[in-house]
Design brief:
alpha/beta; Rossmann fold; 2 domains; 5-stranded parallel β-sheet; 3-stranded antiparallel β-sheet; disordered N terminus; binds adenosine monophosphate
């Protein structure tokens, strides 16, 4: 458990499309702590059309990572926010060993500790099918899938009634292949790092959203 406060500080990790974002949103509801997605933060910056945003967009669209210093700076500012005092869920960070080490330092400086790093494991063949079929509601961000999670009424969001949807530009076959290469080369080395720290918990991410959520809850002791 953390040395300060009672909330959980969790990292969700795993290959692109493993379900980190979906599970993080569910945990956010259950635990009432913020979901910090570095991908979402970067997409928001890219949308501003600033010079920095354009650089970020070019990297994301090709499936490359943004420089460590940039994302470390962004994340460290974000977890300074008051809403993170009682815990947070990190989704998409850390994605490299230098990021993992920077996170350790950031938390040590605040006298807080991570409670768990959860690796959601899904084979590459499933990842590709999941990513190529996914889309989301433009208004509320609720995720859907062409095959596995269609809205109850065709073209209408179950959650907010929105009728416009979008697909991420980086969710195409070529970019996903590059994202998987980058995952193996740059992100995967953080797994043994967290294992050595005694924080790693692995979960099979191939079941339904609810089944995976149940496994994560039980690993975290959430009733
Ligand atoms: P995600 O939404 O987590 O799939 O992230 C989308 C894209 O944002 C990634 O493919 C990277 O280009 C970029 N990105 C997100 N998080 C990070 C990070 N921690 N370090 C570097 N790049 C990142």
């Amino acid at each position: 458990m953390s040395t300060k406060n009672s909330g959980l500080r969790i990292v969700l990790t795993g290959a692109p499309g493993c379900g980190k974002g979906t599970q993080a949103r569910l945990l956010k509801e259950k635990l009432q702590i913020p979901h910090l997605s570095t991908g979402e933060m970067l997409r928001a910056e890219a949308q501003t059309g600033s010079a920095l945003g354009s650089q970020i967009k070019a990297l994301i669209d090709k499936g490359n990572l943004v420089p460590d210093e940039m994302i470390i700076d962004m994340l460290s500012k974000r977890i300074e926010n008051k809403d993170c005092e009682n815990g947070f869920i990190l989704d998409g960070f850390p994605r490299t060993l230098p990021q993992a080490k920077a996170l350790d330092k950031m938390l040590k400086d605040k006298d807080i500790k991570l409670d768990a790093v959860i690796e959601i494991q899904v084979p590459d063949e499933i990842i590709m099918e999941r990513i190529l079929g996914r889309y989301a509601c433009m208004k509320c961000g609720q995720g859907y899938h062409d095959k596995y999670q269609k809205p109850k009424v065709y073209g209408v969001c179950d959650v907010c009634g929105g009728t416009e949807f979008y697909r991420r530009i980086d969710d195409n076959r070529t970019t996903v292949q590059n994202r998987l290469v980058n995952y193996r080369a740059l992100t995967y080395p953080t797994i043994p790092y967290f294992e050595k720290e005694g924080l790693l918990k692995c979960v099979d991410g191939t079941g339904s959203i609810e089944a995976v959520a149940k496994k994560i809850d039980s690993l975290l002791g959430i009733k």
